[in-house]
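Q: How would the structure tokens look for this protein?
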Amino acid sequence: MHIFHINLQKQSDEQLLLYLKRVDRFPSLGKGSGEEYFDEIYRRYARRLHGFFFRQLGGDADRAADATHDVFLRLYESRERYIEGSNAATWIFTIAYNLCKNQYRHNAYVADYLATLDREPTEEQQTEIHMDRDTLHNALREVLDSLPDPLHQLFSLRHEEELTVTQIAAIMDIPEGTVKSRLHKAMTIIRKQLKQYEEK
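A: Here is the predicted structure in token form.
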């Protein structure tokens, strides 16, 4: 018998992760496996994660589905590592980012490329491109797909997942200044590639 019932939909993401972390030690929180908390976290994040992986893994829906499954498997297996007070989205997308990073870790050029990015000045630049929405979407997708993985992932976390610079810095384990520098680099590349579409 449960001592009390928790309305899962009214709980924050952080509370759900805490319940999932503690359920084995406090059975009164719910089922011993914590499956109801896990299911609610899955409901909230599965679509976002699948979209993130779909964009990062070349538009391959099957690979995106497998990667999404892997994130939730790792989330459950490492639930004891969640620290109370930590932002849930940051923690979950750190798992996703590390999974993506493993996809290209074997490429020797990445370390040198990242070092080059980090030498870029920390300068923010606003880019406004005025063009037909459908044309922009298609052109932008082509440019994003051509970006090196580190920039593509960072751009996706900032502008598609709408995470903050602080969250991205935690996810990628780099200083906030480096996040801003790489965002500037990504926007510079995008602006250059899309220059032909700018209104005269």
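The two ends are 70 Å apart (CA to CA).

The chain is about 65% helix and 0% strand.

Upvote if useful.
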